[in-house]
């Protein structure tokens, strides 16, 4: 088999799926992307493109376009229960970014990648895979619509709870819960934030509110410690009750933010979890992005892992479709390991478990904010993130 004119099915129209479709088409394949939603998802929180992922989007020709869409958040502050700013920093320092990194809204990134591929990729919305049979010389696919087709390769780019992974890796149980949950949704900008981010920390619970360039509203993010919860992922009302219960009695602006739960059209709720698999392919079926090696939002590297993984997977399949999956895993494994390690470490800094830890953290931040060497100290704290983001030598598959 060669990749030229190969029919490749990609399930998932998110960052990993659309980026992979771009590189597959560029390598000569004929990619088809199926997405359960009715359209590309335009909503989402802010994400960072850093390190090796910057090289990937530059090679796609969209780096300048994405930099023009940057959130332009200028300041980040930690506040106390009265709303007083305990410590304030410029947004790049607050978010651990170097000046080359690009912070954009996830929906903007997804839209740019979709527009880049819409004329060359067969997108099928409102569709999903329900059955796979690897015949040895292809994969017979059954869709939710009842249709069946054969493809040369099938790639799951369908997230943390990947249905493709469930079909092809039925014997695996790779999702590791980090004992934290996250919820994000849009709220009215009642605080009058202008490209600013505020963080309020309580015992076991952290709340962020931020506004970005070009947005009249704001985003509220809730991150809290919890053992695994039982709930139906399709039951939005149940998820909203879990969030409200977790933050019952919390101070600052939390009660006001939670009043907008019912009106939020972009409500998001999920566990912080990671995916750890011994291998990312079975025969002619492979995985990319969160489906293969989800690092959790706490890592700050999920988007970059998706972009880099899509580039390397398509490049290795182009070089040798027979051994491409194995070569992709060999090149990505250490990069993935380094970036996944950030998740558990970061969440411990983001969510303080006790009132004493919160007080000590607020005191340290207040002192640090007044020290002349604060940027240097914070740079040392963020060094593992930047090392992990660059922990791969990207081949030039066009050379």
Automatic annotation (TrEMBL):
Domain of life: Bacteria
Annotated ranges, domain FAD-binding: 6-318
GO molecular function: FAD binding
Entries under PANTHER family matching the protein: MONOOXYGENASE, OXIDOREDUCTASE-RELATED
Name under which the protein is recorded: FAD-dependent oxidoreductase
Organism in which the protein naturally occurs: Virgisporangium aurantiacum
């Amino acid at each position: 088999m060669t990749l030229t004119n190969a029919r490749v099915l990609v399930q998932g129209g998110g960052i990993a799926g659309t980026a992979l479709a771009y590189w597959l088409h560029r390598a000569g394949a004929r990619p088809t992307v199926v997405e359960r939603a009715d359209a590309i998802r335009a909503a989402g929180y802010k994400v960072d493109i850093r390190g090796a992922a910057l090289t990937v989007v530059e090679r796609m020709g969209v780096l300048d376009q994405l930099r023009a869409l940057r959130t332009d958040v200028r300041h980040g502050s930690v506040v106390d229960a009265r709303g007083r700013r305990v410590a304030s920093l410029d947004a790049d320092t607050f978010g651990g970014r170097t000046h080359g990194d690009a912070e954009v809204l996830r929906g903007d990134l997804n839209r740019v990648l979709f527009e880049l591929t819409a004329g060359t990729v067969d997108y099928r919305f409102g569709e999903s895979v329900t059955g796979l049979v690897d015949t040895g010389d292809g994969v017979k696919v059954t869709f939710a619509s009842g249709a069946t087709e054969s493809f040369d390769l099938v790639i799951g780019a369908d997230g943390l709870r990947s249905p493709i992974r469930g079909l092809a890796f039925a014997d695996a149980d790779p999702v590791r819960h980090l004992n934290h949950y996250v919820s994000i949704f849009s709220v009215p900008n009642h605080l009058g934030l202008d490209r600013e981010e505020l963080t309020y920390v309580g015992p076991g619970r952290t709340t962020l509110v931020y506004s970005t360039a070009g947005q009249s509203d704001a985003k509220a993010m809730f991150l809290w410690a919890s053992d695994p919860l039982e709930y139906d992922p399709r039951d939005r009302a149940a998820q909203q009750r879990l969030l409200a219960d977790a933050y019952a009695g919390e101070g600052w602006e939390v009660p006001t933010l939670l009043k907008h739960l019912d009106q939020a059209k972009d409500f998001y709720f999920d566990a912080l979890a990671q995916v750890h698999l011994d291998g990312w392919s079975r025969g002619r079926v492979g995985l990319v992005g969160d489906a293969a090696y989800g690092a959790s939002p706490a890592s700050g590297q999920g988007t970059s892992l998706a972009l880099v993984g899509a580039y390397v997977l398509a490049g290795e399949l182009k070089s040798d479709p027979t051994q491409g999956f194995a070569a992709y895993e060999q090149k990505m494994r250490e990069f993935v390991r380094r970036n996944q390690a950030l998740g558990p470490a970061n969440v411990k800094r983001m969510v303080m478990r006790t009132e004493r830890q919160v007080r000590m953290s607020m005191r340290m931040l207040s002192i640090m904010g007044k020290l002349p060497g604060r940027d240097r100290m914070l740079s040392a704290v963020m060094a593992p993130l930047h090392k992990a983001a660059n922990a791969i030598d990207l081949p030039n598959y066009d050379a």
